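step 4 of 6: structure.
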Amino acid sequence: MATATLAPAESVGVASTPPPPVLQAQSVFKQFPGVLALDQVDFELRAGEVHVLFGENGAGKSTLIQILAGVHRPTAGSLHFRGEAVELQGVHHARTLGISAVFQEFSLVPTLTIEENLFLGAELTEYGFLDKSELHRRADDILKRLGFPLRPRQRVQDLTRAEQQMVEIAKAFRTDLSALILDEPTASLTDREAQRLFAMIEQAKSRGVGIVYVTHRMGEIRRIGDRVTVLRDGKRVATLGVAEADDERLLQLMTGRVISQVFPKIDYRPGRLLLEISHLTTADHAVKDFSLAVRAGEVVGLAGLVGSGKSDVGRACFGLQRIVSGRVVFDGRDVAGASSRKMLDLGAFYLPPDRREEGLVMMRSVRENISLPWLGARPFTRFGFVNRAGERSKVRDVAERLNLQPRNPEHDPERLSGGNQQKVLLAKGLVSPVKFFILDEPTVGVDVGTRVAIYGFIRELCEAGAGILLISSDLPEILHLTNRTYVMYRGELRAELAGEQITQDRVLANFFERAQV
Amino acid sequence: MTEQISDGAPSLTLLLQRLFVRIGVLPFLLVGALIVFTALSARFLTGENLITVARQATYLAIVAMGQMLALLTGGFDLSVGKIVAITSVVTALTMAPLAAAHHATALTLTLGILAGVGAGTLVGVVNGIGVAIFNVSPFMMTLGTATISFGIALTLTSGVPVYGIPDAFGTVFSFARIFDIPSPVYVTAGLYVAMYVLLNWTRMGRYFYAVGGNLKASRLSGINTQFYLFMAYVLCGALAAVAGALLTARLETGEANIGASMPLDSIAACVIGGVSLRGGVGRVGNVVLGAIFIGLIQNGMDLAQIQSYLQEVVIGVLLILAVIADQLRQFVMLRLKD
């Protein structure tokens, strides 16, 4: 590759002593008011390695990378950069040393172009005026070097999320890069985009850049990782080579539990037909001629890549996507094109995939959120007025049942952890008799503890006779929780698998184009 | 700066910070205003003057309660001033000929009020249709209807005040006193109670908050979001119209030129009262207090003989300070939460 000239100097250093790690944290503590976020954590990043940080939400991953990137300063402990103690004064200081982080929230100005963003705060000038041609040349240079298919004069707001992430990464490469910190970079990427990201990471590795990679996804660890450090409750539990890190081991380290404790055994008793979709096509053709059936007492999976149309099926059932042809029959009634209200009244509940975007009213209390879909009915309304006492007791019951933390339902969801926010969202479907649930990515961005709780509820609901349509990108979820699974590809039904047929290979094989199988 | 908080027992600053986060900036402003104006004028802190303040603040309080509904749903209403104006004009134009024809006074007043409030509410209906059905931004929609209303009001009156309103209108709806308290204050109190019940004890109230807090989540919860957006503007228009009718009773003429400062003042009252400009948050009691605060400031400055042009400056500065204080509050809240 043309970039070979940029190979690190350390790798050809004195043979007897190994080069010092690029970045090292020694017994770092971080105390936030009321929380010890990091408790004597050691962490070491070598040149040319991908070091994965793994752990539940709240385990301390974010705090650790924020310290490494100069956002926070440790309460105690020390940081070393290439063997020398450093005190990072801020993100900018870290950047000048060649330590850059790409967090989940991008720091890009959407209305500016890529090149303007790349050099934001470090504009090139000539006689006090912007040197636009030089800026363009250099931006182009960086993008070419990284192999990103972007044009410097594209506006950032016109880019996909993956492309925006590339811009963030390119920004890190503007100066000489030693350590790159990536915070769940594939969280919202499609599979193809993720592949492109991995290729870029390989490239950076070969140039001697050390990469800290935060992820929830175990598949990615083996795909690109060299070493894994597992955090739990602010402590470092273990650091191991990728070869030793199988799923079971990682789950166990992260949670202190074994995998059979994560996925419950569900006793399926398929009964009467609840939802029957036949030859459904939506107006935007996200779903084409698709058919599916869900019975009471079973968990039916709907799998596929992002953009395969699996989400759109759920949305179409809930009046959120316009249907042009096909039938949707719920509980014996034709409900094609019915509104959300109608579906709720018939006893169906839809859990949207993005709780912040569509799920919760963040600034209103947990109580108000939970009762929102059902305010018109008892016990929430009496004599035409909201029955606040009835509401409070009902919500308190559900909060208890879900083990919501904190228990007080008067808090705003904004102040809860991601896992508890997800529980609130689920609670909206538990305060009223609902016989059919559409759960779209019910465990996205939640910690394993909440995951286990949510799976427990899926089991409980199913065994109590509810029908569940589980739309998920999380393969283990599909494999371990469903008794039948449909796989979609580009809006069409690709396969229907049942029972023993639901294996990783068979599901995955239907994710992609036939040619690849 | 986090270190400050983490060590030692809770200090006085911390207690003040907590108080600030809990109750917001308004109580501090109210206490501050009371102290300053009591010091500036001996006539300020008297029963009679406070009653005057209450009466002066009623019109703004009513408009602000309506404005609050628009703000709760994530919009605002710039047409409230012109709704006041068109209500005034239509009320007067309906009453004057009826009174001249010697119809019964009760009938004249009833028809006049109905016509005026109806006309004002109609503007709210148009706003609601534009915002909820046609998705016009509240800024453009209400700015547009404000101009239209003003134009109609001027056309109807040729720009001159409308006389001929029966004296009884002013007597009953402005100057009458029960237990020494002027009648408009009772109307305001009644509307406050109605609004309190609406916002806290009815589905519609709950839905206003929800729709403004997260439109998509509300829709998914089966709420007819268009209807509630529409209703917010209708009720806002209706409340502004009631204020317009009361103001007409006080002035005893129909005027196309009143209410010009209402949009800004009502938004200011809401913001000072802690209503979020992003929607979903706010308490009606604090909005009324916000309106009273603005009334207090204007009255206090009158007594302290600060000229009215300068008063505008003070109100503007206070509004901006209140918004800054609210930002500060968010910041302190986050820091305390950490």
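step 5 of 6: annotate
 - Chain B is about 75% helix and 0% strand.
 - Residues 1-8 of chain B have pLDDT under 50 and may be disordered.
step 6 of 6: archive
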